[in-house]
């Protein structure tokens, strides 16, 4: 037997060393870099096991063959425990192929486990004197000990049937941790992935005034932010608007804007005789309220327009109180403020004055909305203590907010007030499902709380999208379940059990809110994503949320199908339900896709296609109704009131695609991010290039924007003139590439805006422009205009497509201060509108 080298353990036969002490000595095994064979392929000397050495030293050499039997060198086991147990060939992966095939839990023995080493010899008797197995270095280990220590075993040291080992759950957790570390090491970190190329100018803007003491944030849906997509239109507003060619026209538009805005501001001023009176607020509210016949119409208008997706009141209970009020039998002060707020909201849709005329009396057909809102606010401010957490108080707060929306209040003001209402509801515990507090909350009250909570969420989501600001609550912050799809008559205060909810395709009083509540979680995710849009690094999450919203929008058509066999009133009701739901789904979809569809050069086709399709749908809602219907005009006015902002956004988006389509049609086709696929071919698509996919042609898009502009001009009011002017300049600038022709088209469009808005508001022309010293020469009609090319021969085009005579009078010195002064405009164009004359700054 070879003599051990100096590196080996000392001879255990040394006198004075006990056998158990010798076994406790740490053996000096092979180094990690050593091998069982030397360079010549000869076997190297291996250390003698301590137990074997002790036996050799204490026992004389025997000539018996059994005593001279050599012990095989134990080898580390590289197979998994399952393959070793079943004597199968293991590929040494984790998990191995054999375990995957048999669906077994693939495990490997621990490094210091005795089972990790093979037995010395199959023929060797297993007794207490069998040599102990030595500790081996990790398989494949290289380098120093520190490097070998990082290579942990794939499993814990527990073996099958070992009760002292780790549980399978702990082993699984250990496997997951190692797998995550392995993936993180080989995968690039999130910080190394580039962000999507989005321009901040097309996402947000900020107005800064008075040395940064006054600032206002504008999101991606603002007209001033969308204008950053059209450099030529902004250049015109910055330079050409003050030129001699356009000074007279812009001066007339500015005076028209001032007249309309001043008149609108005057109509929004509450009547001081009622607001500042010292009489009890209840008496003042009774005096403002019209007679019952008028209230009946206003109440019906509110129910059919607002009390659909926003379920605030229980109709049977409210109608019972309504009858008692007119009979003089109603006690309490909570009903009258609610009735006044409801009538104010209904006046915006039903009354001829739209709730903005300052008059009262039995002949008045509505309620003056600003006065009614101030009276309801006064009543709410008089509440104290526990009255502030009463459910009827929360109802009144929501009804007041709905009435304030009708007067086109700043959405930022609504956003802040709605945040207070939502937090008030949370202090009342409405964000938790009522079932958590049974039996303290009755069944009827529980369902009313669910309806109210999701009404608050729906309104908060809508206003947050308009303002491009975060919602006051996120998904997961509440446990309240969606309301049931039940009629109001099925719910009553004395009920002890809630009836089973109807299927979602079954029409009920609460069908719209019930379906909308099912989609709140997805839409809340969209709003949250929009507020962290700068950190998005790929399109996967965007496409996933967008695809879900598109599927939801498609399902709406099945819930409220188009049926020509229905009566006119039933078709109008179906249309209203379909539009209410569809617009609440398309608004977050458009907001989600807009930064990428209009601000990214490599947006996926799904985004551009869905964005353009949704924009067209928003602008074509009215096309489903027959213009010959008796109530078509009232429906059109309601459509304008509810969707005015959406119409402006969609029209500017179509202008973006009009420019892209004309550019791709005029030159070599290279990038079809610019035009989304059309769902169906159109007649006017023949003029489009044959090698491009089937698209909405520019002529079709121009027609749609022209029609929307006509509706905006016919219902002009407040500060709408500046938005209409911006849209007209953009539309004119994208229809042609020649500079002179572009200026000619802009002049024509602005003249159309001036004349149409004057007719819509019955404005005296002498108040808009002074008498003309010399009649100007008439402008010739542009026969190359794509809209006129699409006209039927012999058909007269609409009045706003012709070229009326422009105003050529020179402005006075005072007027020059009001004309689009854009000097010192920042090159980034982010805040272009603040440089316009003070009249145009809101």
TrEMBL record:
GO terms for biological process, alphabetical: DNA-templated transcription
Biased composition (Low complexity): 45-69
Domain Zn(2)-C6 fungal-type, residue spans: 79-108
Keywords tagged on the record: DNA-binding, Metal-binding, Nucleus, Transcription, Transcription regulation, Zinc
Molecular function terms from GO: DNA-binding transcription activator activity, RNA polymerase II-specific; RNA polymerase II cis-regulatory region sequence-specific DNA binding; zinc ion binding
InterPro entries: Fungal_TF_Env_Response, XnlR_reg_dom, Zn2-C6_fun-type_DNA-bd_sf, Zn2Cys6_DnaBD
Region (Disordered): 28-78, 117-166
SMART domains in the cross-refs: Fungal_trans (SM00906), GAL4 (SM00066)
Transmembrane domains' residue ranges: none
Pfam families assigned: Fungal_trans, Zn_clus
Gene3D superfamilies: Zn(2)-C6 fungal-type DNA-binding domain
Chaperone as UniProt keyword: no
GO cellular component, one term: nucleus
Protein name (database record): Zn(2)-C6 fungal-type domain-containing protein
Native species: Verticillium dahliae (Verticillium wilt)
